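Feature request disguised as a bug: please show the residue count (635) next to RNA helicase in the output. Example input:
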Amino acid sequence: MASQHPPKRRKLSNEAFPKLRDAEVQKLRELPVWEARQAVLEGICSNQVYVIVGETGSGKTTQIPKFLHQSRFKKDKIICTQPRRVAAIANATRVAKEMGCKLGGLVGYAVRFDDASTPETKIRYVTDGLLLREAVADPLLQQYKVIIVDEAHERTLDTDALLGLLKRMQRVRKDDFHIVLMSATLDAGKYASFFPGAKVGLVQGRQHTVQVMYTKQAQESYLDAALTTVLQIHAREPVGDILAFLTGQEEIDALCNLVRSRGLHTKGADGQEKLHPVAIYAALPAEQQAQVFETAPLGTRKVIFATNIAETALTIPGLRYVVDTGVVKQRSYQSRAGVDLLAVVPISKAQARQRSGRAGREAPGKTFRLYTEAEFEKLEATTTPEILRVNLASAVLQLKALGIPDVRAFDFVDPPPLPALMARLPVDPRYAKILLAAAGSGCAEDAAAIVAMASVEQVFISGRTEQQRQASMQARQRFRRPQGDHITALAVLRAFLATGKGKRGEWCAQNCISGRAMQRCHRIFDQLCGLLQAMKLPLERLGDNQDPEPLQRALTCGLFLHAARRQPDGTYKVIGTGQEVSIHPSSVLSGSKPDCIVFNELVFTRRNYARTMCSIQIPWLTELVPSYFTKHIAR
Ligand code: CDP
Ligand code: MG
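Example output, currently without the count:
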């Protein structure tokens, strides 16, 4: 199904990157993989499955596909997967630059809804999810001679599903092709034994010593501790940039703003005038993402506030100091509660070591762990693979779409506990259900808009100054719909689409809305509409002044596991499970407190917050999902 609607081709610039200067070429040649170049090439050529283990920053992602292209595989297609779209884009851009070609020419990338590659592309960076979808059309991935699964240690769900498929492919495909797994950690034995005949090769990194410091007492707030530590490093430590690990966009933006205001007055130990804060997280627009790789303006010290994306996926030069809060935001499925929790949880020891390692790439460094040594000792040794902790519905759907009827018999590195599920739309089953329900009541197009808006993280830009924040609040207020966040999001997308193409940039700026997020959303919306049409479903929309009740009902059908009812004290309880939740302050419903809501997800910070919600009427639940609610409402 997905293959009938390939991602939109992006308009590619015809400009090639200028050739690298000699000094830059020299620097590349100093990367550890260059020393191991011959061994790496031989390892890949003489084994069908080859596992390469090497420290982050040793050059695996950017150099190895290039080595292959420059040797035996010049005419062949090489594909390299990344668990995150940011990494696919950043690495493709970097390699195109190193090779002096244009992006989308010899080197390109493709991520969901954004394709910057052409038939000429020989080195293609993609997300592992995208390669999974390509496998729908071509289960043997015939067009690729070398398939590189990068960041295999991250064990994302898509990576794991891909590994299972590759193993099947290894049995069936008889031509000369090569599977390469790349990992930054040493637990490679596990994948190696998963693939019959696989060999492991080590790239010896040059790691400098990193001094690890712990706090004496447990910290009450890791955010306060992180800010204080960053300012202290700046005031006391010699030259070198700082990388601080936080858990998400809101925290990162907040600390960047704080440093921007307070850092101005702190003189650095080496006479730097001020700190130069930079943010990096998955939802950040590409232009801003590029800033983490740039050197800080003269006389400043760069401090990067990052999510775990900077652990291994992106290699950032110039770092000497790491601030490790010891936490990460992770999605996990609570089958007992029936909800997906996005929770801030302690990292594993392996992650803590990866974070520390970031400080010692170029010179000796220091890591400030914002937790005690005793707390470190209590951490799990490694992170649980995603496949063992999330709602497996989408993975199961993908596998079914790939023509694997019995997912239970599928070969996984770590076999998951499997629910039995089916659907025909390549979206989360909850969203598929919303779309189908809406199609039955004349508002599928609106539902597609809502699902598209739910797929992009942040549409409103909060702004840096008080004045910008005011403007942003006012803009949100203009679009606010009393039924909740979904219907509000629909109003935003409708207004965007009603604006003439040439005026959309200006419209976004006026309304404090991210133009990039809206463009992405627009592309997803178009694709969803295409899919619905291909399924011969009526693509209809409600009139501008029509009551959105059919949509609220459709949302109820899809999100019923996340239906919550207001309690006399003003908090909410999830109906099926009795779990207590509060309305997230970012919701348009945070002031109005309707009797009953359905919500997209639960965010766990200091309390359980429901996020992105819609008000509904209690009788709809038994009417629309009787099998589930007759039991729970009666209770
Ligand atoms: O994959 P691995 O972690 O082994 O290394 P890499 O990502 O290929 O990075 C190799 C070198 O390229 C690093 O030293 C980075 O500083 C540099 N690099 C960069 O400057 N900009 C990028 N977008 C990616 C890598
Ligand atoms: Mg890499």
